[in-house]
Design goal:
Elements: E1 2-4, E2 14-16, H1 23-30, H2 43-62, E3 68-69, H3 77-85, H4 99-134, E4 147-151, H5 154-163, E5 171-176, H6 182-197, E6 201-207, H7 216-225, E7 229-233, E8 240-243, E9 247-251, E10 262-266, H8 268-284, E11 286-287, H9 290-294, H10 309-319, H11 324-331, H12 335-348, H13 354-363
Parallel strand pairs: 5-6, 6-7
Antiparallel strand pairs: 1-2, 1-3, 4-10, 5-8, 7-11, 8-9, 9-10
Length: 368
């Protein structure tokens, strides 16, 4: 038989005792041992039994005298396992822990597992990106067919576009000559944020007049804050949406908001032609000024005091030729997050490339 050392504030220890006699009957009568002929394999019953055993052990430890506790061989194995898995009982029926201590141990273990899982996931995402970069471009010799689809419902259209993700959406090009109302924009923003959170590069090109419509400024600011790049132009040739340079979408009639339906073209060559139109307009457009520009801020790069310490650090590291992977590791973020921060920095500098951003940063005294 085993005896519990009491008068302790920490975990208890079990030691071998010399008295046996009617101790087992006392323990059994108190309800510490259970009839194993019942359905002891049931998880709920096991938990109930384990809680009763733990309650008695805690009561023994809190008493001022030594009392008898059930020996390990008399307690069902699944009960001991239940308590051990929850860190309430040590191996071999030794060491009774308080719920507070058990909780700390469990949280510590889970924290370590989550940290390890996050690191593994980040490595896997980098591996996926590396493999995606090696995928060959789609090539078809001879005649090609173009899949054309007419869609009248914009909600169905959004779902249809989501279906064109064979591996993962990587780029979305948007050209807007007008925008829908604030309620529709709010719904679109939620969808766009989810797309950006997946690491997709999104560029939005809009006419200056379209940005003045109700709710558009807030939508574009939120979109840019989520990682999208936004530029404006005095005029644009059409309302256009290109996904991964394989799918192109445009209104079927005169209504750019799809009142007459939309035409969806699925063909890499056709989509590439529209993407080139977008690139031409993008190159001559100017960065969207955002909230500051609408309140009268003069055009040009933001003043030096509007850049955070982290943005200055990124610029300094880029100036020394540090690679994105090393910068991301130093900042404790992913390369995708770093690219989104770089997009924000180049837009604040109103630069069209990293090189131009470095030149303007040097002129502003942001880097030594």
């Amino acid at each position: 038989m085993h005896q519990v050392e009491t008068g302790m504030t920490g975990p208890g220890r079990l030691r071998h005792g010399s008295r046996a006699g009617g101790a087992l009957e006392k323990v059994r009568a108190a309800g510490y041992l259970f009839d194993m002929s019942a359905d002891s394999d049931d998880a709920a019953e096991t938990g109930t039994e384990a809680r009763q055993v733990y309650t008695q052990l805690v009561g023994t430890l809190r008493s001022n005298r030594a009392t008898w506790a059930p020996p390990p061989e008399e307690v069902p194995g699944e009960v001991r396992n239940w308590l051990a898995e929850r860190r309430l009982l040590g191996p071999e029926f030794h060491g009774v822990s308080s719920p507070e201590r058990a909780l700390r141990e469990l949280l510590g273990e889970q924290r370590a597992r989550l940290r390890s899982a996050a690191e593994a996931m980040e490595r896997n995402l980098r591996a996926v990106d590396d493999v995606l970069d090696l995928l060959p471009e789609f090539r078809v010799s001879g005649h090609e067919s173009v899949e054309v689809e007419f869609i009248e419902d914009r909600d169905r259209l959004r779902r249809r576009l989501d279906e064109f993700e064979p591996v993962g959406r990587r780029e979305v090009l948007c050209m807007r000559t007008t925008f829908p109302g604030p309620e529709v924009l709010e719904v679109s923003l939620g969808h766009d944020r989810r797309v950006l959170a997946q690491g997709t590069e999104m560029r939005m090109l809009a006419t200056v007049g379209a940005t003045r419509a109700p709710g558009v400024a807030a939508y574009l600011d939120a979109l840019r804050e989520a990682g999208a790049r936004v530029r404006v132009a005095a005029a644009l040739p059409l309302y256009l949406h290109v996904v991964d340079r394989t799918v192109a979408l445009m209104p079927a009639g005169d209504d750019p908001l799809g009142g007459d339906g939309d035409v969806l073209l699925r063909n890499p060559r056709i989509a590439l032609c529209f993407a080139q139109v977008f690139e031409h307009e993008w190159d001559v457009a100017r960065p969207y000024p955002g909230g500051e520009g609408r309140t009268g801020r003069a055009a040009g790069p933001r003043p030096a005091d509007e850049y955070t310490e982290q943005e200055r650090e990124i610029l300094a590291l880029l100036a020394t030729g540090t690679k994105d992977e090393s910068i991301a590791r130093r900042l404790g973020c992913s390369e995708r997050t770093l690219r989104r921060m770089m997009t924000r920095i180049t837009e604040k500098l109103e630069a069209g490339s990293r090189f131009a951003a470095g030149v303007r940063a040097a002129r502003l005294g942001l880097i030594d």
